[in-house]
From TrEMBL:
Species, as recorded: Goodfellowiella coeruleoviolacea
Positions of Mg(2+) binding: D274
InterPro entries: Ribosyl_crysJ1 (IPR005502), Ribosyl_crysJ1_sf (IPR036705)
Cofactor(s) for this UniProt protein: Mg(2+)
Cofactor binding note from Swiss-Prot or TrEMBL: Binds 2 magnesium ions per subunit.
Keywords annotated in UniProt: Magnesium, Metal-binding
The keyword Ribosomal protein belongs to this UniProt entry's keyword annotation: no
Official protein name in the record: ADP-ribosylglycohydrolase
Keyword Magnesium: yes
SUPFAM superfamilies linked: ADP-ribosylglycohydrolase (SSF101478)
GO molecular function terms noted in the UniProt entry: metal ion binding
Length: 342
């Protein structure tokens, strides 16, 4: 896999845009306030999503098996244990470097379906849902997986996204929204490079139906940009589908790189701003790259350095395999300490 400078910038933008939207959903007076901007459990869980993916890829390079869902489950369990929740087997195995980040152990709000599923000790899946939750936490936390795509049509990230979402959220609409969002974000990260005819083809009919709704929202934003009533209609609650459609509408209403701040401000008018704003920021960061994100906010982002480091490490794992493998030398002696393959 080879990446360009633009792709690196877009992956960083995706990660940091998500966290920025999440943080602004908490700091209503971000323009006037100073000091750090912290987010919600969405940002914390997004960090562990990426860490779980890196560890799964690292494991595969050494053992030929990755078990991504199991690695995702273990990653979310480490988050829960760090937050003080009782999770069966949550401390099994080495912790990795995220365990030493203070901001990941602080109370940044709840993620009820996630915590309840982890506390139950049974890993959910698309064939055996663990509950019927439709909440946005299962959706927003997996958006960074678009950063691991090897090309604009790579279907692996969206399948991992669906599997990671299904670990704790049982409504199929959460998985389908995750697949569609990651497919769209993958195209944005790659700038449309290599696409055959401009069409996204998703294997599941239900995914294609949801993608059609996304395309309708993009067209609506072209006709009626920045309409708060429309935003409320598209995203009336805290579900994954609301997060998807509301985020697409907010981002598509303010597509220009100089209007990223306007898009994020607009997303905060959604009834459930903490659902919509992360997707808005992720889309525009993936579209324009990290330089388009407002520095006056980005410089105050509490988890900014963590997500930026994770973005670089994910790309390093994909391109360089720093921890080595069966036929590859070890480039970083501490890689297996930072990302234990288990």
């Amino acid at each position: 896999m080879a990446v360009t400078f633009q792709q690196v910038s877009r992956v960083r933008g995706l990660f940091l845009g998500l966290a920025l939207g999440d943080a602004l959903s908490v700091a209503r007076q971000a323009e006037a306030a100073d000091g750090e901007l912290r987010g919600t459990s969405t940002s914390q869980l997004a960090c562990y999503t990426v860490e779980g993916a890196i560890r799964a890829l690292h494991r595969f390079s050494h053992r030929g098996i990755g078990h991504p869902s199991a690695m995702g489950w273990a990653a979310y369990s480490r988050w829960a244990v760090g937050r003080g929740f009782a999770v069966p087997g949550g401390q099994d195995g080495p912790a990795g470097w995220l365990a030493s980040v203070p901001a990941l152990t602080e109370n940044w709000g709840s993620a009820p379906a996630t915590v309840h599923a982890l506390a139950g000790g049974r890993m959910g899946g698309q064939r055996e849902p663990v509950n019927s939750s439709r909440g946005h936490h299962g959706f927003n936390r997996v958006l960074p997986l678009a950063g691991m795509a090897s090309g604009p049509d790579d279907d692996l990230p969206r399948e991992w996204a669906a599997d990671f979402a299904a670990l704790t959220h049982g409504d199929p609409l959460v998985w389908r929204a995750a697949r569609v969002a990651v497919a769209v974000l993958t195209r944005l990260v790659w700038g449309g490079e290599g696409k055959r005819d401009g069409a996204l083809r998703l294997p599941e009919p239900a995914d294609a139906e949801l993608l059609a709704r996304v395309n309708e929202v993009v067209a609506l934003a072209g006709r009626e940009p920045g309409n708060r009533a429309r935003l409320a209609e598209l995203a009336p609650d805290g579900t994954a589908v609301s997060a998807l459609l509301g985020g697409v509408y907010a981002a598509s209403s303010h597509q220009q790189p100089e209007r990223v701040a306007d898009a994020l401000r607009f997303a905060l008018h959604a009834p459930w701003r903490d659902a919509v704003a992360p997707m808005t920021g992720a889309m525009l960061g993936a579209l324009h790259g990290v330089a388009a994100l407002p520095m006056r906010w980005l410089s105050r982002l509490r988890l900014g350095w963590v997500l930026d480091l994770l973005a670089g490490d994910l790309l390093a794992q994909l391109v360089l395999t720093p921890g080595g493998g069966e036929y590859q030398p070890v480039l970083s002696a501490d890689w297996s300490t930072r990302y234990p393959p288990g």
